[in-house]
Amino acid sequence: MKKDIMPRYFQIKESIKGEIVEGKYKEPANRLPGTRELAGVYDASYLTVNKALKLLEDEGYVKMVQGSGIYAQTPKERNTKQISYSGKQSAALLMPSTGDIHQDMFRTIFSRLEDKNILPIHLADPSEVEKMRLAEREEKIARFTSQGIRSFIINGNRHFQFKLFKKFQERIGQLVFTIHFDSGIDFPDANLVLSDFHKGGYIAAKHLIKNSRKKLGLLTFEKLSGEKLRQHGSSERQYDSDVEDGMKAALIENSLDPSGLSILGRESADHEKELSKFIEKGGSGLLCLGDHRALPVYRLLSKLGMKPGKDFGIVGYYDTSWTEVFDPPLTSISINAEKIAGLAAEAVIKNWCGKKIKVAPELIIRASS
Q: What are phi and psi of 189, to 5 degrees?
């Protein structure tokens, strides 16, 4: 999805924020051009630029001083007085705003909330928070949850800071976890709008079996260390286990031994070595949990003189732009991300509490399987 589908003021906000983060407006020359000058730079209206600047001020990246100008700052330099969004219903997005899956979701949630006069606020990509030291993470989450924001929409994958969020939960009116919920901590009133990963594994394996792939494997991500799981408050059982269970269900349904399903990547990042052993032992079909994980599979098959879709079946996951990079194009599982996004927005609009929904995925067949 192209960047220009985002609201214009959001594009401008992100562009200015990028310049601030990169150090364009460091002290002592930390003053930004005026609103009208920025309107000329971005070929936008005064009101559009002003809206972008207001969001930047809310996030702590600029300080607007009446009669003086607009000054860049980092969030840590902001005044200790907390911002309150309580004057207008608001929803904070703690999720990536870019990438094949998340940009579509972000756009849908953003636009649907705005249509209902609910202020959407992009707080951060959770991966940025994970890179911080523990004390910095806590300070960040504490600040996020003390700003009077009523609803939080979160991609609850295994890297999310569940433990810290639980610590400040009493400050939050509503939680909506989307796509994943890999928490080892209970959030009883949270809304879950998730992808049905069990069904995804099932339909992928069923398709491979139908194409005479009887010895199957799942190429997944390396598991988190015990220390990381404890730090994050993540569950030891991740969503790839649901995919695995779905694949086993398809094997059983077709009178095949589920114990013969090979799990690759969970214990080691050396995918080529594991893949070589899998193929040597008769492996004929593979589900890659993430389309990008098909790359080493295609490379190895090329080395072995094997053709994807003919000698070996490959199915990816998430149906991203990676699918068209491969030759032949990659069959993949779409999680119906825009439907998930629409339901997440509806959860905020209708003030759901404790509702749990799993959205069925869809198999997009191409030539690799």
A: -95, 0
Using the structure block, give the residue that is written with the tokens 């991740």.
238
Return the closest-CA partner of residue 119 out of 148, 90, 162.
Answer: 90
Determine the average pLDDT of the residues in 301-316. 97
Contacts of 133 by beta carbon, 8 Å cutoff, 6+ apart: none
Q: Is 264:255 a contact under the CB 8 Å cutoff?
A: no
Q: Sort strands 62-65 and 69-72 into parallel, antiparallel or unpaired.
A: antiparallel
* CA angle, residues 35, 124, 182, in degrees to nearest 5: 160
Q: What is the mean pLDDT of the chain?
A: 89
In words, the CATH class of domain 1-80 is: mainly alpha
Lowest model confidence (mean pLDDT) among 4-13, 61-70, 158-167: 4-13
Q: Is the Cβ–Cβ distance between 362 and 318 less than 8 Å?
A: no
Q: List the chain domain ranges.
A: 1-80, 197-336
pLDDT at residue number 113: 93
Number of H helices, E strands in the chain: 13, 15
Q: Would strands 191-195 and 356-359 be described as parallel, antiparallel, or unpaired?
A: parallel
Q: Which pLDDT tens digit goes with each residue over 81-113?
A: 334 444 568 899 998 888 888 888 988 999 899
- How far is 184 from 246, CA to CA, in rounded Å? 21
pLDDT tens-place string over residues 327-338: 999 999 999 999
User: Which class is domain 197-336?
Assistant: alpha beta
pLDDT: is 116 or 132 the higher one? 116
Mean pLDDT is lowest, of 92-96, 129-133, 273-277, for 129-133
- 1 pLDDT exceeds 60? no
340 and 193 Cβ atoms separated by less than 8 Å: yes
The H-assigned helical ranges of the chain are 8-21, 35-41, 46-59, 100-115, 126-130, 134-144, 162-167, 197-210, 226-232, 239-253, 271-280, 295-303, 337-349
Do the strands 151-156 and 90-94 form a parallel or antiparallel pair, or are they unpaired? parallel
Of 117, 149, 75, 103, which Cα lies nearest the Cα of 10? Answer: 103
Residues 144-166 as b or e (16 or more Cβ within 10 Å = b): bbebebbbbbbbbbbbbbbbbbe
